């Protein structure tokens, strides 16, 4: 007891007496911290500082405040946005023939281009005072997603002017003169924008662009003008072949000191008319046969005045931060919208198709093997819709959540790929035979485009999510890094000392919370709700604490080397991502009014999210470079083992069973697939067959019963079966007519297009 008391006194003195603490703890730790601090390039620093920390910050800190999540409110459409979707968007859908766009025109038809321009489809984000729609991020996402259910090519054409590009950059950073010059013409489609960032030598590492702008003086419009000599070579630029105004990112240099002492000003963005002398719009690319415009642009020694820099000369060298902030918003809207559209189409058509398509005398949706894949489709679609809503909601709250949008971009495009692959497996020949009736093929072909653009998925996962999240979202690390960079060492030590005490308390709290929740099954963790979802909140708090303590241990042991441990960083980023996706799922359930028929999807999704988060933690511990630290982490995180399992067969069967019939739950996660009278995409066709066959389900049961009893032979062709049943008075004339009509719709739905020649 005496030893214990002395030890406690020693700890109190060591930490409580400032001079002693500074000498024996703060100074050594500060010295160690500066030594292991990862070096940051200027572009990394700007990316780190750009954007805001939002809900991901709560998830990263070990004890999320779930009431904060629920306080964000429910995303809604304004009356104006709803009217636009119900009218202009629905009209646009009737004008889309995706097979014609992709296989014949290789472009949108002129009348669709004109309609998009006239009705403001290219002006969704432009302020109203400049003639734009000024819609919310949620409305923007919904419009793009609805169009994407019919045509990826048309959706990409609409989404690009409303994503990263001149419209967004001008709205946020443009001078008043630039806004008045360009925004009105962009709003009415008189000007078509593109933005040239990517080049042969700079893809995901966009900060390494080699394109140059050299400050110089030349004659421009009859006067000597201070400007830039630009040389660039860009590729993969969407809308470039038809653009009238080019947004250009380049490295700006001032070798002669015409602007000041700084020679290398950094990445800068300018706006250039494509008919300006020297601007070259090259030939088109062919992005997986899709019909949207994509191509190259280049220029050599093209002179522009300095006031063509977006934001004016005062924004010289600030282009990278501008791009990161705008890209973080765009990544949370456009590509996630395409992925969500894929989920809605896959769920609506696959549940319908698997009900009308029969093999071995029964609908294929009744086979457990099919149900396993179909459960993933439905659950992933619920997840996609949930993440779409939460992410756009954050953007509409006027935050720029760069980590959240990186999570959304990576995981939602991957989930979109997953649902399409499962849908293709189930619909088989219906999915692979291209034609006007095929509603899966083009989206399936285009999926890799979303995977690779706006930051390749592999690097987004391995470098960005945890790389930025660990620093931005941690309550102490970024402040400690700032303290380490202070020139006044005394002030730096004082600042670091106050942060260190908080950091130690934070780490101890997370370690104890992680261990306590692991030993008690999280039974004593707080939750904002009761009922069937309560335990999910508790388990997420446990995993959040585990991620927090593992992050601290990783930074302590690996320091700057952590960012080079990409596989380990990716796994830890996966934990944060799964927590975010799970949060979105629980919020959607609450926003929908806790509908009981949503619970099968919620249970499946949440079981999967927790399973994947725990698996990522377990795999990270298993691959941790320090075996001693790995043992400690396993004791704190999984003292009784990892018991978070994948969704059970029963969960899958329950989920699919509830979706193989018309109902509100199915409507809620397929609403983006709007039915229009002259729909030529095949979606309405398979849906009508599904509804007709479901309406006749009692008649089919009557026929089955007659076959089992021997009144009618088994394995008769459908029409013959109906005729025999009518002749034997098993069904009435009206029932016979209903069955024949349903079977005609069924045959039309399962048939595919064929051609005399290709």
From TrEMBL:
Family: Belongs to the acyl-CoA dehydrogenase family.
InterPro entries the UniProt entry points to: Acyl-CoA_dehydrogenase, Acyl-CoA_Oxase/DH_mid-dom, Acyl-CoA_Oxase/DH_mid-dom_sf, AcylCo_DH-like_C, AcylCo_DH/oxidase_C, AcylCoA_DH/ox_N, AcylCoA_DH/ox_N_sf, AcylCoA_DH/oxidase_NM_dom_sf
Necessary cofactors: FAD
Residue ranges constituting the Acyl-CoA dehydrogenase/oxidase C-terminal domain according to the UniProt record: 317-458
GO terms for biological process, alphabetical: fatty acid beta-oxidation using acyl-CoA dehydrogenase
Enzyme Commission numbers on file: 1.3.8.7, 1.3.8.8
Protein name per UniProt: Acyl-coenzyme A dehydrogenase
One term under GO cellular component: cytoplasm
Record organism: Shewanella psychromarinicola
Keywords on record: FAD, Fatty acid metabolism, Flavoprotein, Lipid metabolism, Oxidoreductase
Signal sequence segment: none
């Amino acid at each position: 007891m005496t030893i214990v008391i002395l030890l406690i006194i020693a700890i109190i003195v060591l930490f409580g007496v400032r001079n002693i603490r500074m000498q024996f703890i703060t100074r050594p730790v500060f010295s160690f911290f500066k030594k292991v601090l990862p070096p940051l390039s200027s572009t990394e620093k700007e990316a780190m500082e750009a954007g805001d920390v939002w809900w991901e910050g709560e998830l990263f800190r070990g004890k999320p405040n779930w009431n904060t999540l629920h306080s964000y409110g429910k995303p809604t459409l304004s009356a104006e946005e709803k009217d636009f979707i119900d009218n202009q968007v629905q009209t646009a859908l009737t004008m889309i023939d995706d097979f014609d766009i992709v296989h014949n025109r290789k472009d949108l038809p002129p009348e669709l281009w004109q309609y998009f321009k006239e009705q403001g489809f290219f002006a969704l984000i432009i302020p109203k005072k400049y003639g734009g729609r000024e819609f919310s991020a949620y409305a923007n996402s919904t419009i793009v997603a609805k169009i994407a259910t019919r045509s990826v090519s048309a959706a990409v054409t609409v989404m690009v002017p409303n994503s990263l590009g001149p419209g967004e950059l001008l709205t946020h950073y443009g001078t008043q003169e630039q806004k008045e010059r360009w925004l009105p013409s962009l709003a009415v489609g008189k000007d078509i924008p593109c933005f040239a960032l990517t080049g042969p030598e700079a893809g995901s590492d966009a900060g390494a662009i080699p394109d140059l702008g050299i400050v110089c003086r030349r004659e421009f419009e009859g006067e000597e003008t201070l400007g830039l000599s630009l040389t660039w070579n860009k590729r993969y630029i969407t809308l470039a072949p038809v653009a009238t105004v080019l947004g250009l990112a380049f490295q700006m240099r001032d070798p002669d000191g015409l602007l000041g002492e700084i020679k290398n000003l950094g990445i800068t963005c300018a706006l250039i008319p494509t008919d300006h002398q020297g601007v070259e719009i090259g030939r088109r690319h062919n992005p997986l046969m899709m019909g949207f415009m994509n191509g190259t642009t280049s220029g050599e020694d093209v002179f522009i005045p300095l006031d063509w820099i977006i934001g004016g000369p005062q924004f010289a060298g600030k282009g990278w931060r501008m791009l990161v902030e705008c890209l973080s918003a765009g990544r949370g809207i456009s590509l996630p919208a395409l992925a969500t559209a894929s989920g809605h189409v896959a769920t609506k058509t696959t549940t319908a198709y698997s009900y009308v398509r029969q093999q071995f005398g029964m609908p294929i949706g009744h086979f457990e093997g099919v149900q396993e894949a179909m459960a993933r489709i439905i659950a992933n679609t619920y997840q996609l819709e949930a993440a779409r809503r939460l992410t756009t909601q954050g953007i509409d709250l006027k935050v720029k959540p760069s980590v959240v949008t990186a999570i959304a971009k990576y995981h939602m495009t991957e989930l979109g790929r997953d649902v399409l692959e499962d849908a293709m497996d189930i619909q088989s020949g219906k999915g692979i035979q291209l034609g006007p009736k095929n509603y899966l093929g083009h989206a399936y072909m285009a999926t890799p485009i979303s995977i690779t653009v706006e930051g390749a998925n592999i690097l987004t996962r391995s470098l960005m999510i945890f790389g930025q999240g660990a620093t931005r979202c941690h309550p102490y690390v970024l402040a400690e890094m700032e303290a380490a960079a202070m020139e006044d060492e005394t002030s730096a030590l004082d600042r670091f000392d106050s942060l260190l005490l908080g950091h130690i308390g934070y780490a101890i709290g997370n370690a104890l919370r992680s261990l306590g929740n692991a030993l008690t099954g999280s039974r004593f963790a707080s939750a904002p709700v009761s009922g069937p979802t309560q335990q999910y909140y508790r388990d997420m708090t446990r995993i959040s604490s585990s991620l927090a303590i593992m992050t601290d241990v990783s930074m302590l042991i690996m320091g700057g080397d952590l960012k080079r441990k990409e596989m380990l960083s990716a796994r830890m980023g996966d934990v944060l991502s799964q927590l975010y996706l799970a949060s979105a799922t629980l919020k959607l359930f609450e926003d929908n009014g806790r509908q009981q028929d949503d619970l099968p999807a919620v249970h499946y999704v949440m079981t999967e999210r927790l399973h994947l988060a725990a698996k990522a933690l377990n795999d990270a511990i298993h691959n941790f470079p320090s075996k001693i630290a790995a043992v400690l982490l396993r004791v704190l995180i999984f003292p009784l083992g990892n018991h978070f399992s994948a969704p059970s067969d029963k969960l899958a069967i329950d989920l699919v069973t509830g979706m193989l019939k018309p109902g509100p739950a199915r409507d809620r996660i397929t609403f983006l697939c709007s039915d229009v009278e002259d729909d030529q995409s095949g979606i309405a066709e398979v849906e009508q067959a599904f509804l007709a066959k479901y309406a006749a389900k009692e008649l089919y049961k009557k026929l089955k019963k007659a076959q089992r009893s021997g009144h009618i032979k088994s394995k008769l062709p459908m029409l013959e079966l109906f005729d025999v049943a009518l002749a034997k008075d098993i069904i009435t004339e009206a029932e016979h007519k209903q069955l024949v009509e349903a079977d005609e719709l069924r045959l039309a739905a399962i048939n595919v297009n064929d051609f005399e020649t290709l």
